[in-house]
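User: Fold both of these, please.

Assistant: Here is the first one.
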Amino acid sequence: MNKSYTVLFLLILSFNAFSQNPRAFKYQAILRDTSGNVIPNQNVSLIVGLLEGRMDGTEVFSELHQTETNNFGLIDVEIGNGNNLYGSLDGLVWGDSIYFMRIELDETGGSNYQLMGISQILSVPIALYARESGDTSRWRQDSVNVYYNKGNVGIGTKNPVDLLHLYKECALDTDNAGLRFSNPLVNGNSWFIGIKSNIDPAGFSILSDYTGNNPALFIGKAGKIGIGTENPEYSLQVEGNSVINGNLGINKVNPEYALDMGGDIRIKDLMIGDSSSSNTKFNIIGSNHVDAAKIEIGKGQDESSKSLKFITRAGGSIQFFTETKIRMQIRDSAVVIGRPTPDKFVDLLVNGNVKTRQIEVEIDEWWDNVFSPDYKLPSLEEVENYIAENNHLPGIPSGETILSQGMNVGEMNGLLLKKIEELTLYVLELKKENEQLALEIDNLKITK
């Protein structure tokens, strides 16, 4: 059987009245049947909803209460301490809006709720209003947080110009204006963020301890930024080692390499590696190892520093490759150009003149066999016929071949020596023939 009840606001208590949740207020009502009789000792289910602005306004809060009427049909619940269905009382600003209470009831204690009525809350819960929107304070507090959402907050000034404005007149070098963060459970537990008075010109500092012995970050009035120093001389100055995990882009929004530059680079002084030499402007060193190779570009102050130096230690070499093949090596004892084991292909091509004091050519064959007893020396008649037919000496490349294919210096020197040795044999034969003719002439003279 459906019953009706009369809603009566009997008592509104302050926050401090409830130990479990101070952000709640009491609601009491007497339930009567259609004949006006109270409904005593009855389990009932009640849904209380709060609507903002008007009777059909937006629901901002609702909760379920399951309770029991007493001997006089009275129910007594704490709005804010029921089973929450939607929203929170913490976010309601009682002084800035009007609210309506909607009551839904199942007098049997079940879930078949019927709307009993909607009425405006004419008497704002005093404790909530005093806490949320009193004229003396704009601070807000929920169950765990305190916050401020109207205007600026000033510390040291009554005219703050930003959300949080810290102000302090620092008369001594030890006076600082800022925030300090401490954790007694951590070594080096104090951090300072703010303006230090002992820095001129002043700037914004972040220190890893309050004494200022470990500056982490400094931003000066001139736009200079220091990391690890409070006295930067450049736009960005970093004291100590720096590590960048990822790619760094200069004029590149999406760098693809460890250092990706989208324009030209000009470097006044650059040191890559480490060097104690005062005559070098640019050094590239393989590592800190004593035998590491390095490249030095001199400053040009004297004869030594006018050079580009490729330096290796004992046993090392300077090597030049094309793809995976070594083409040139500069070793401790020699300069090797070409393949380590030269073959018949060209190992060095010079498009111009070469001037040298001495050339040593290594070849695989030499022509000392001309003076061997079993060497067959062509006759002068055979040589004459060959020249008449080919226009060059036997065994010597033609002019056409040399012009088109070039000349092997070692091989050509051997061929020329061979011809000289053959010529020597021809001269010796001619000498013998001349001596024989001279002897025959002398005999003829005697006969006469």
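And the second sequence with its predicted structure:
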Amino acid sequence: MINLSPKPYPGLSPGLPRYKYTAMATVTFYLKDAKGTKETPINMYFSYGNLKPFKYATGERIAPANWNPEKQMIRDKKGVSDAMIRNETLDRMRKAIVTIYRRLIIDDLDVSDTLLRELLDIEMGRKKADPSLTLLHFAKSFSEKMVSQKNSNARIVTMAYNNLTEYCSKKKTSIDFKDMDMLFRDRFNRFLQEKGYAQNSISTCFSALKIILTAAKNAGINKFLYYRDRDFSAKRERVRKYSLSYDELLAIHKKDLSNFSDQYDDIRDLFLIGAFTGMRFSDFSKLKPESFADGMITRKTKKTGNLVTAPMHWIIQEILDKRGGQMPRIYCYDTFNKGIKEIARICGVTQPVILSYTKGGERVDEIVEKWQAVSTHAARRSGVRMMRKQGIDREKIMLITGHESISSFRIYEDVEQEENALALMDHAFFKKPV
């Protein structure tokens, strides 16, 4: 780590002091013609291990008689105009080159004179960064590309971009790749809390921001890697996620929706296909008629790329028979999510449940009707829990659902806690003595 506090470099002549940093980088200011009588340019030399130091024109000129070589600054005396302001410019330049170098070293990037000059020119305002290479411009084009490609992360990446834009607008500031450090992390996290975001929504926003920053790195645009720190994130909290029981799903399957929009019938049937296969939305929404054959459903999972096969549930077979072997119409994630909530309400999934979560940095316990807690992902969760309740081995379910690790599978498995409590209800410990 580089020590930003300058220290005199020992062993040098008194007239040419340098500043040493713990990464063996030194900053020195030289006059082009130190023996002349007329004004001469002040140049900065930055030594960082190359055979020759990096030379940079400061843009300042001074007569040698008005230059203090020991303090590395312009003498503040009568007849020397703006000495204080010009010295501040030199000091800012010194700090800027050291900060740039420190970032490159921390990010394990190759340091070159060309890269140092480019970044220092931008830092000193001599050159504007190519707008197509700035963070917000890249995030905008990247999110638009993901939307056009119907990428499964398009929604959260767009959300992250919108929040970055709003952050800059409300804070009256600008941000770029070099600003993606822990200080920004804390400020952005606080900004999202003040917006009233739930803790897991904040965590998702940071995950999406990392997707953007990684994509920019892979494109050769983002040279700053602070975001790789595991603390450049927001911790997810474990909250109760509700699923639908077999009886609730059966009621939804049997409900006559002919008096409602055709959209509801499509969303209902697609949700049931997801529930009785345990698939992710990104998988069950991409099924084709040819995915169903000989009583089996086969598909390649989008997340892992693995080929998985599941038996066809009788409710799925009824849906396909009703539709002549064709799949329901597909809707975007948000439309699907809103639709399945309304369908659950229509079908009587209205018992009160408790939602506990952190919002705006404060703990919230909210009582809602269960349909309000139903989401697109409840299909996969319902499938996993139904299969576990029916006694199907965890390993066999994972082969159907495409889960690759026990830890990721357990997130869906809350059924064990419920069954444990039910099994203990009749234990003597919980009964009043006779």
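The chain has three domains: 7-123, 131-228, 246-424.
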